[in-house]
Amino acid sequence: MRRIITSLLVTLLSVTAPSLHASMSLDKMIVYFEPGQPPRQDIMVTNPDPENLYLQTEVYKVVNPGQENEERIRITDPDKLKLLATPQKAIIPPNGRKTVRLVSLETPNAKEEVYRVTFRPVVGDIQATQTAIKLLIAYQALVFIRPANPKYDVVAEWKGNKIVFTNQGNMNAVLRNGKFCTSKKDDSCTPLSEGTRLYAGQSWTLELPNAKGYVRYGLFDGQFEKTKIFSPGKS
């Protein structure tokens, strides 16, 4: 499962056409920094438009990721910057590309750190003959910085017709490709439309049609997916 968050900024401008849409694309929306690997990752930004793209990048630390009290705090103090995005500002020509480099300055001790990096188009010089609306769409890349010994550990507890998944590890895992089965035969299995990214230390509750059966999910760590079976009385 990939969670892509886009924010839409609408600005009233004087432009030469009734409406314009400043667009761009990123070659990746999720970035993983693994222990023992180079502490840098590149994201390629492409400008498909016939005019210059004025780009600004912003780094946000995610506190309590995936929870109702999740906060995204923009980091501007150089002494507190643990994730760099360079360049912070760039001009990408029409049909051009620009590499934005992310550099991790830390290896977490307890559990992975989560960031979001915003790629935001800003308004450049405009010559106009009439008034119109220009849409500026910003994208956010999700960034994970893994601890020295990353591992997810997803267990489950059955409560009636509900199953509570808890990640006891120090990194997130995505629960996807789920199925509810009433027997060991494949034709007894029904696909589960629900899945989630389960962050370290968090729980997620899934309600089932009935409790007579078992659940299996693919657990995806960013590179590999392993299938795990969750049965009543077993985690």
From TrEMBL:
> What does the UniProt keyword field contain?
Signal
User: Coiled-coil stretches, from where to where?
Assistant: none
Extract the InterPro entries matched here: Ig-like_fold, PapD-like_sf, Periplasmic_pilus_chap, Pili_assmbl_chaperone_N
Q: Where is the Pili assembly chaperone N-terminal domain?
A: 30-149
Using the record, list the residue span of the signal peptide; answer none if the entry has no such feature.
1-22
Please name the SUPFAM superfamilies in this protein's record.
PapD-like
**Protein's UniProt name:** Pili assembly chaperone N-terminal domain-containing protein
Source organism per UniProt: Kistimonas scapharcae
Gene3D superfamilies per the UniProt record, alphabetical: Immunoglobulins
Has keyword tRNA-binding?
A: no
